[in-house]
Fold these 3 entries.
Entry 1:
Amino acid sequence: MVMTQPRIAVVVPCYNEALSIQLVIDEFKTCLPEAELFVFDNNSSDDTAGIARRAGATVIPVKLRGKGNVVRRMFADVEADVYVMVDGDATYDLRDIRAHIDQLLAQRLDMLVGCRRDDGSNPQTYRPGHRLGNLMLTGSVAWIFGGGFTDMLSGYRVFSRRYVKSFPAMSQGFETETELTVHALELRMPYAEADIIYRARPEGSTSKLSTLRDGWRILGTILKLFISERPLAFFGLLALVLSLLGLALAIPLLLTYAETGLVPRLPTGVLTTGIMMCAGLSLVCGAILHNVTTGRREAKNLAYLAIPAPADR
């Protein structure tokens, strides 16, 4: 049965956004008046929760600090057909939100990501350091997992129900965007990107991002996901590196042995043997973990398939 009036939920993660949350809620009420508004307050020390509540949003407190913890609660607590997730800092222009939802439903997508385009009003809106970090991290994910994402770290996303209810959120902080992206790529979900205007924060409001600290955490998450989701590739690469190192050490020993019949550098020979054994063990570990990962992926895919498609009930 074709779904004509999907239930739309707006979920907004917030931490100390008292200066901007009213603007976000008002903009959603103008652009998407039928949506249910949920603000997830991540232990704010200002009046974010009170302002959001007075503006008409349902406020749900999340005590565990970190955006990943908030996303876990959002996806667990809210029931809807379409989910719109946007940061509570009023930096995303929402005028095209209805078109994005229509695209998700018409194309039966599971995730639509807003690609940030600077509005040009302030050179600090989308700083060069953030642009470079986003480019490098997004490129790393594309190289390891494939896909064609260009703004993996965007805080503006539209999800289908089957994406949300099949997503096993594990991260704690800002690295959750990486996890969201890899989940779609691993299950080969249909996704798309759409341009969205990225604005300056309201005057007096400050960003919670740290370019270096959060960049390292995201890079660490990419590495962990590489190991857990592509174990054969990771441990196979490690085995190749160890094998090349072992061969580099072994060749001079073999040449000396061929000339003299002796192995004068016994410690080097022992080291070479150990390195080659480690290479073999690495390859075996990769093969075993590959089977484990395949089973996990099959279980996640079955959970995903048990939920109706975006345009059906």
Entry 2:
Amino acid sequence: MKLWLITLGLLAVCASTHAATTVWQPAAGNTQISIWPGATPDAHQVPGPETAKVSDKLLAGKPVTAVTNVTRPTMTVYAPKGKNTGVAVVVFPGGGFHILAMDLEGTEACDWLTSRGITCVLLKYRVPSAPYEWQCDCRPHNFALSVPSLEDAQRTMRLVRSHAAPWHIDPHKVGVLGFSAGGFLAAEISTNFARRLYAPVDAADRESARPDFAMPIYPGHLATDDDKFNANVPVSRETPPTFLVQAEDDYVDGVNQSLAYYIALKNAKVPAEMHLYAHGGHAFGLRPTADPITRWPALAETWLSTIGMIPAAGR
């Protein structure tokens, strides 16, 4: 994966922006919840205050909201519409650990999940953070664990399980969905869930951070340019069932990211399903286009039923 290519994709879409606000806010009726009751562990300096900017450039006919300088991570819980399946999915937007594409790879994913009876928990994790370093606008350690965001992900998984009863969630049906850098985060928590990165802060931290399933969509940071697998993602038999989607003409993260992860999953005998398409590029999210790859959510729904998470269609 060429480092200069990582700066493209979502960052290019968000380069021309307008309507900046200080803090991203969900739509009316939804509330952000701070995931850390006190001080945020391993806090790092960021360039300035949190900002949410809406791009002038359109992607699949819509702008993209880019959020950056997140120092107080939050989760926003979106209740399922219609019949509740008891399933919950924590969503990790992408953005190269520089920004978060909060609508393209966040709220729009929640719209899909909740329409299928799934509780969606949208995580606004800390950015900019490793492996991106804003001081040099670079990624000196491109395959390092994104420790701050992984801490946020672990904490959120535990909080969701600790609220399983009041939120009407089955604690054994909590998965993750991540895009691009968020896809790497989905792989990180799938393989580093037992690694204690922060000191427990309350009873919620007695819960497991292991996802019951994972959906990394066009993930990055998993394979080197010579196709060596990232050793910081230690796949084992305990890694959850995984669903992968990527385009062969993705020149930001590259199809070898999914290929390398799939092979590691196969070798560890982890149930995995991978869908590769000739066209689609990078950062297509769930926005429908003429490319068949944008119909991947239907395949994901079928997969979720085959692994016993949601009822099969028509049931």
Entry 3:
Amino acid sequence: MRQLTVDEGSAGQRLDNFLIRELKGAPKTLVYRIIRSGEVRINKGRCSADSRLEVGDVVRVPPIRLAEKSDDQAAAVPAREFPIVFEDEHLIVVDKPAGVAVHGGSGVSFGVIEQLRRARPQAKFLELVHRLDKETSGLLMIAKKRSALTHLQDQLRDRETGKTYAALVSGAWAKGKKVVDVPLLKFVGSDGERWVRAVPDPKDPQAEHAKRSISLVKVVEAYSGDSGAKGGKAGDPAGFSLLDVTIKTGRTHQIRVHLAHEGHAIVGDPKYGDFEANRLIARGALRFDRMFLHARLLRVVHPATGETLTLEAPLPPECEKLLAALRRPAP
């Protein structure tokens, strides 16, 4: 029989989530079964899956034999630190590279959070505050205390944070188009993949299930179609536009779908972009083979001090290289 004492990092957490974290490798069905059967106790009393834990609570857990493969799986996760933009005892903000998932699942064995936990075995609490698509680079928040996690997620939910992304899109974005306010609907396609589509028509049969989504758009720089860069739509006179996109809602694939819906897909977007244009720019002289979407600016209220943090992550070198090529006149 194990007796687990709840520390500050787990205070406020639901019992089921606490046990899933503590009993690594245990199936969720087993966790809920031992709770329902009364084998798990909090301070010697019966409890339910949604019981909230407090500092100093003692959780009694019956002996459980976990599959040995869980240790093998943990060992297979390589320890990795990521470029730190900000860190204190409450919060870490890293600059996530493109091509790295934020967490394991959906065919991905591990992501940023699993690798960071592996690199910091002494850390009692590390949890993702929000998500970034695997293809997106830039600022990612990770909480080091549960109190910080709930505070920051409340800010995100109440739209009190500022998250701005740099996006390079095909074509000339109209400078007067500053707001995209189009509902989005998430669904699973015939390929089993998760997709999102814009639902601009309130008469659409699925309109009632779509969620209002708002993106603010500003043109940072425009590139003519006669630049020296080869790629994208060859010979496209419309060129490209570098945008700053600030999201007021945090829907899945929001920026990608909003910009594509407006007729300006993100360069390199493998899901909502132009396949042929992506192929040309990836195989051309520039060899740009990622999606040009980067979480570059974050404004958030510190969960403990109340100070407003303004954090920035510069564009990755491969993105800067592409922009430099677009600025060069054609020979």
